[in-house]
């Protein structure tokens, strides 16, 4: 290979190395990594909410065997599940505050409807002692805890990403590449960020009774 033919590949390698170093130094690589982490943590949130939705039909079915007259509660659960399922969860949701708010609101309505459904069991001792109901209740409580963990992880990932997007000099890089802050779940209790609450539907039932 002649000296002249060697110059071009060396120049290309030098340009690539310089570009890579520049992108790393301006925070581009870190922004991309954090963006991927946000997306991954969001997928886990969606997966856990879907897991909960999949439990609902069987849960309603076993409750109906003992409490057919609770049609209002069954209707509320069905409507809440349909509303939550009607929201298309795409990556664009992560950049749309209104879409995020609608999704979160729908899932909170689902939580409320399920709490009312579980409260029904307090009025039916035979239902509470049903082995299938007990198993479904345990699965639901476990899923609620996993939802809390997934949400908290997402909250933390978004907080980290948004901080990077706002800080100098990475805020300049973010603007250049069109990377804006992302909407997040609202947190009224800072402790909820790091602690998954224990789900106890019996408490909801007692509160409803009062």
How would you sum up this structure, described in words?
The chain is mainly alpha-helical and 210 residues long. The protein has helices at 3-25, 28-66, 71-85, 97-120, 125-128, 131-166, 170-176, 191-194, 201-209. It is elongated and about 65 Å long. The model is unreliable at 6-23 and 188-210 (pLDDT under 50).
Quaternary state reads single chain
Shape: elongated
Number of discrete helical segments: 9
Rg measurement, Å:
24 Å
Strand and helix layout:
Layout (H helix, E strand, L loop, with lengths): L2 H23 L2 H39 L4 H15 L11 H24 L4 H4 L2 H36 L3 H7 L14 H4 L6 H9 L1
Task: From the structure above, extract its key features.
210 residues, mainly alpha, 9 helices, 77% helix, disordered C terminus
Précis, in short:
This protein is mainly alpha-helical and 210 residues long. The chain has helices spanning 3-25, 28-66, 71-85, 97-120, 125-128, 131-166, 170-176, 191-194, 201-209.
């Amino acid at each position: 290979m002649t000296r002249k033919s060697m110059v071009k590949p060396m120049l290309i390698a030098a340009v690539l190395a310089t570009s890579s170093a520049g992108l790393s130094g301006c925070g581009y690589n870190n922004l991309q990594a954090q963006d991927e982490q946000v997306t991954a943590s969001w997928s886990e949130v969606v997966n856990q909410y879907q897991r909960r939705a999949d439990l609902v039909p069987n849960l309603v079915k076993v409750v109906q065997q003992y409490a057919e007259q609770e049609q209002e509660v069954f209707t509320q659960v069905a409507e809440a599940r349909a509303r939550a399922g009607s929201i298309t969860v795409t990556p664009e949701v992560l950049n749309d505050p209104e879409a995020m708010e609608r999704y979160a609101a729908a899932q909170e309505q689902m939580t409320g409807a399920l709490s009312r459904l579980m409260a029904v069991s307090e009025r039916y001792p035979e239902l509470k002692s049903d082995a299938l109901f007990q198993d479904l209740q345990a699965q639901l409580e476990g899923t609620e805890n996993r939802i809390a963990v997934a949400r908290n992880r997402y909250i933390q990932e978004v907080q980290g990403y948004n901080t990077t997007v706002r800080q100098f000099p990475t805020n300049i890089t973010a603007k250049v590449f069109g990377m804006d802050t992302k909407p997040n779940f609202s947190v009224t209790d800072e402790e909820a960020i790091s602690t998954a609450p224990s789900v106890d539907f019996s408490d909801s039932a007692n509160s409803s009774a009062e």
